[in-house]
Amino acid sequence: MITKNLQNLQNQIFEVASRCGRQPEAIQLVAVSKKFPVSSILEASASGQLLFGENYIQEAQQKYLEIDKNIHLHFIGHLQTNKAKIAAKIFQMIQTVDSAKLAVKLNRHLDELDKKLDILIQVNVGRDSKKSGVLPEDAEELITTISALSNIRIKGLMTMPPWTSNPEDSRPFFQSLRELSESLQTKQLFYDNTSVELSMGMSHDFHVAIEEGSTFIRIGTAIFGQRLY
Ligand SMILES: *Cc1c(COP(=O)(O)O)cnc(C)c1O
Question: Which numbered atom of ligand 1 lies nearest the CA of 221?
Answer without folding.
Answer: 8
